[in-house]
């Protein structure tokens, strides 16, 4: 968890009344072809840290490569979704919008990422 995550989550909370954060399970992280030693922190610990943030109301883990809303379970489809990244790459955008929901993007914090943080740590210990 880094400052980019906390700023993003605080900005997302300001867009609605309830913030539910979907956290990749360990299996999901491994399926994304990240570095072989990822995840570094277990899914239980990542979920606990996110849940401890004052802006977060609920945390769920997902095993899929992305947290795409399930069409069969309408209660899981958010009415509003915020995500970092490019507008056309937001997972589940079409599903949320087809149900009358709103999708928003939140810009990345420049120069801050888990990958860059890991690289900095490795370069100072090598």
Write the layout of secondary structure elements.
Layout: H1 3-13, E1 20-24, H2 26-31, H3 43-51, E2 58-62, E3 80-84, H4 93-98, E4 102-106, H5 114-125
Parallel strand pairs: 1-2, 3-4
Major sheet: arrangement of strands: 1-2
The amount of helix comes to 25-40%
Tally of separate helices: 5
Task: Compute the separation of the termini in Å.
Answer: 23 Å
Strand content: 15-25%
Order of helices and strands: HEHHEEHEH
Structural class: alpha/beta
The rounded Rg comes to 15 Å
DSSP strand count: 4
Shape by Cα distribution:
globular
Q: Average pLDDT value? A: 80
Q: Which sheet architecture does the biggest sheet show?
A: 2 strands, parallel
Provide a short characterization of the protein structure.
The chain is of the alpha/beta class and 126 residues long. The protein has five helices and four strands.
How would you characterize the overall build of this protein?
It is a single chain. With 126 residues, this protein is an alpha/beta fold. The chain is built from five helices and four strands, in the order αβααββαβα. The chain has helices spanning 3-13, 26-31, 43-51, 93-98, 114-125; strands at 20-24, 58-62, 80-84, 102-106. A two-stranded parallel ribbon has the order 1-2. A two-stranded parallel ribbon has the order 3-4. It is globular and about 50 Å long. The model has no long low-confidence stretch (mean pLDDT 80).
